Amino acid sequence: MPLLEVRNLTVEIDMGSEFVKALDKVSLTVETGEIRALVGESGSGKSLIVRAIIGAVPDHWIITADRLTWKGQNLLTMTNEQRRVIMRREIAVVFQDPTSSLDPSATLRAQLEESIPEEFLDKGMFWQRNQQRREIAIGLMHKVGIKNHEACMQRYPHEIAADIAQKFMIAMALVSEPELLIADDPTRSMESTTKNQILRLLTGLNETKKLAILFVSHDLLAISGMAHSMTVLYCGQTVESGKVKHLHRRPLHPYTKALLDSAPSFQINLPPKSHLVALEGTIPTLKHLPIGCRLGPRCPNARRECVKVPEQRVVHNHSYSCHFPLHLPIDDQAENNE
Amino acid sequence: MNPVLEVKDLVYTHRVKRSIFKPIDEFILGPIDFVLNAGETLAITGHNGSGKTLLAKSLVGAITPQQGNILLEGKEAEQSDKKTRNHDIRLILQHSKYSLNPAVTVGAILNQTLLLNTELNEQDRRTKIAQTLVKVGLLREHYYFYRHMLSDGQQQRVSLARAMILDPKVIVADEPFAALDPSVRSQTVNLILDIQQELGMAFVFISQNLGIVRHISDKVMIMDKGKVIEAGATQDVFKEPQHELTKKLIDSHFSLVDKHFEQF
């Protein structure tokens, strides 16, 4: 049984005169002990998926899903209390934009110590608890790579640099030893050494403690280094999903290919100062979503059929939604030959 | 040939007194020296808080360095002579979104730049704006657009248009690609490469993304705690980094790249 299963999740947002499908039938599963990357550009609804999973969505938005389950329990029909218990101990979230998601009125020490669950304080008598809290907190700060913990602990969120705040958010998420970590763009605005350190930490936790990670990002370099499988999102539609290896080797959807080609680091033979591969145009806004396949207007091989939403097709755990995939999937060819 | 931009011994000291009981926090930037020829790109990289943005600011004259000279085509760029300086060195800020005035149209933003820095009459200003908008890949109609009507990539283009409308000799860009998505980022990189080739501008840019640094820059400068720890031609630095920290930065970048290729 998958740890987290999202099947055909649709979120409709009230835009005043009409409802707009910000997410359109998105599917996603996270298995136990798996690192799943969720890739997409800004405005593709990555953060919206995260918010739908954790339940931080305004009441007047319409959420429908065939399935939104955590270990088989339906998250949508759960009471708020039940859901909060799960969110407290089993799922942890690192939010995007750390400086604004921390409490501005409390020091970092207070916030981190508050998030340590009571069950962890089992040594010694009650008057030793505070000391123990402090030790756990300091240990965590070191673990995520904040060396100078004394200088940070006394500060308020607005006084620290963005990358330290980011690491601090990761420390706060890891404190309750969750089973699933949802990390929304955790390596943003980090230099490559720090990024590597955080990625190593997450991979290490995944290997030793079987921590499952939903890694939401558009940093393809980070993703291809650590993730096992990957789901690509474009404008609220799942475009392609499968093992990272397969996606890199044979991307079936034109968008996945464009995304992979756009990173100069992935192309060794690219002469310096030459043109990079880029799709024309930009991501449409929610008010101007095209009908059918939402990549349609930007797609290099769009044809008339693309005004219809393509069905999701699955070949060997590699699913894609495109009328004209770049390669024919191997198994289809084999079947045709037989 | 005279280099376009020459920086000698630049030092800027930033002091903060937080409380009377605590020692003064001091940050010293520099001394920094570099030379940049026309059509070249210098990339500045380094850890957060290493003074990259301060350097960019002191290049364009937003802050006054205590010591050192900035020579533009062999001539001293005087702090008092803001007009030529603003004309020749232009800055693109990190968040183009917040650096554009939300209350006026794109045309008005660009017009303001021309009004303050040139003597052109209204007709000429109009044509100049239209030309620049087309040059950065926007439409003439974007003259009447407000900031919120544009996408991220288009806003970045407007910032670029504002920087190059005065035909500067040097453009300084502070993390111009950080806030952009991969596909839009590639477009902007292509655009900047084209413009540089066409107009022969020198380009100083600050970035954390070593993949892009390696791709578009001729020279690279790595900073730590306000000091330049390594500088040289991009290919040499990437091939044989000398300083400990540079090695670390480059190794960690390439270890990620290698992991990617291991999967094949």
Briefly say what this structure is.
With 338 residues, chain A is an alpha/beta fold.
Tell me what the structure shows:
The complex is a heterodimer of chains A (338) and B (264). Chain A has twelve helices and 13 strands. With 338 residues, chain A is α/β, with parallel strands linked by helices. In chain A, the strands form two sheets. Chain A has an eight-stranded mixed sheet with strand order 7-8-9-3-10-11-13-12, with helices on both faces. In chain A, strands 1, 2, 4, 5 and 6 form a five-stranded antiparallel sheet that branches. Chain B contains ten helices and ten strands. Chain B has helices spanning 52-60, 82-88, 96-99, 106-117, 122-135, 152-164, 182-199, 210-216, 234-239, 244-262, and strands at 5-16, 25-36, 41-46, 67-72, 75-76, 89-92, 170-174, 202-206, 219-224, 227-233. The relative contact order of chain B is 0.16. The chains are: A alpha/beta (338), B alpha/beta (264). The interface between A and B is large, with 44 and 41 residues.
Largest sheet of chain A: 8 strands, mixed
Shape of chain A: globular
Give me the count of strands of chain B. Answer: 10
Instruction: List low-pLDDT spans of chain B.
Output: none
Largest sheet, spatial ordering of strands of chain A: 7-8-9-3-10-11-13-12
**Mean of pLDDT of chain A:** 82
Distance between the amino and carboxyl termini of chain A: 34 Å
Of all chain pairs, the largest interface belongs to: A-B, 44 and 41 residues
Main-sheet strand order of chain B equals 6-7-8-3-9-10
Task: Name the overall outline of chain B.
Answer: globular
What portion of residues of chain B belong to β-strands?
15-25%
Helix fraction of chain A? 25-40%
Number of strands of chain A: 13
Helix segment count of chain A?
12
What is the percentage of strand-forming residues of chain A?
15-25%
Mean pLDDT of chain B: 83
How far apart the termini of chain B lie comes to 48 Å
Assembly type of the shown chains? heterodimer
- The ordered H/E elements of chain B are EEEHEEHEHHHHEHEHEEHH
